[in-house]
């Protein structure tokens, strides 16, 4: 009986050790330094629900990155646009963004918050050209948009169009969509993500010139940073904390792990 209890008590210790080891390995794998980075999102709360590990990592002062958030809607689908804009400013500060001045929210009928609405990539490109002239790195959703949300997917196509038309050297990183099992596996997904990203970076190394950026960026948040991300949802984005969001912030790998390609 005593041995059984000892085995049970060892489980949280092993999980905590595994978690911290993954976080340490991710920090030593690939990172951005001295970049002017814009996180392109569709709605207030995207930054906390999907990109919190990335924000908490890239905003660390020692990396000397300039990180901003560019949101293409106020999230007004339920008539709460004004509230949600304020929530985004609060969340951004909690996730390491230097000041509210580094958060831009576009409230335009061209970009309605809608589960049915596909935004025109040319209009997105034009919007980015007007406001993101000085950045050299864009981070946004991939072509599947994590949740298949059409607004998320539109950002991917709009960002690609903008970069294709821009004469400046701009690096695009997109957040990888995964299957539903991995999506809700929290910290357990970190080891596979680390192995896969390490292999991708190793395979790409022969094609990279000296000084080029890594092919894949991976971040595994520490337990303390995961708690910060959860608080950004529960204390800043209060209007969005419906019952199912508690499951998301407790189980989603995107609260813990980000891999950008």
Characteristic terms for this protein:
11 helices, alpha/beta, globular, Rossmann fold, single chain, 261 residues
The sequence of SSEs as H and E is HEHHEHEHEHHEHHEHHE
* Total number of distinct structural domains: 1
- Class of secondary structure makeup: alpha/beta
Radius of gyration over all CA atoms, rounded: 19 Å
Q: Average pLDDT, to the nearest integer? A: 87
Alpha carbon gap, first and last residue: 49 Å
The low-pLDDT segments are: none
Instruction: Report helical residue fraction.
Output: 40-55%
How much of the sequence lies in strands comes to: 5-15%
What general form does the structure show? globular
Please name the CATH topology.
Rossmann fold
CATH homologous superfamily grouping: LmbE-like
- Give a short account of the largest sheet: 5 strands, parallel
For the record, the CATH architecture stands as 3-Layer(aba) Sandwich
Strand order of the largest sheet: 3-2-1-4-5
Report the CATH C-level class. Answer: Alpha Beta
Say how many strands there are.
Answer: 7
Total of helices: 11
Keywords: Signal
Family: Belongs to the PIGL family.
Organism: Piedraia hortae CBS 480.64
GO cellular component, one term: endoplasmic reticulum
């Amino acid at each position: 009986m005593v041995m059984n209890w000892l085995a049970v008590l060892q489980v949280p210790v092993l999980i905590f050790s595994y978690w911290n080891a993954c976080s340490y390995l991710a920090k030593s794998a690939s990172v951005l330094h001295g970049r002017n980075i814009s996180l392109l999102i569709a709605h207030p709360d995207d930054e906390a629900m999907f990109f919190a590990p990335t924000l908490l990592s890239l905003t660390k002062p020692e990396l000397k990155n300039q990180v901003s958030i560019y949101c293409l809607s106020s999230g007004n689908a339920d008539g709460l646009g004004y509230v949600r804009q304020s929530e985004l400013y609060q969340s951004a500060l909690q996730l390491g963004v230097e000041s509210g001045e580094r958060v831009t929210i576009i409230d335009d009928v061209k970009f309605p918050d809608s589960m049915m609405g596909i935004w025109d990539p040319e209009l997105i490109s034009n919007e980015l050209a007007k406001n993101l002239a000085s950045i050299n790195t864009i981070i946004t959703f991939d072509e599947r948009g994590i949740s298949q949300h059409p607004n998320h997917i539109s950002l991917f196509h709009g960002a690609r169009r903008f970069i294709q038309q821009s004469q400046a050297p701009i690096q695009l990183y997109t957040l990888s969509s995964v299957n539903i099992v991995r999506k809700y596996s929290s910290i357990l997904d970190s080891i596979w993500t680390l192995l896969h990203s390490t292999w991708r970076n190793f395979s790409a190394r022969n094609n990279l010139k000296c000084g080029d950026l890594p092919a894949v960026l991976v971040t595994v948040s520490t337990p303390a940073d995961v708690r910060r991300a959860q608080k950004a949802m529960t204390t800043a984005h209060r209007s969005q904390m419906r019952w199912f969001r508690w499951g998301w912030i407790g189980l989603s790998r995107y609260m813990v792990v980000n891999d950008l390609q």
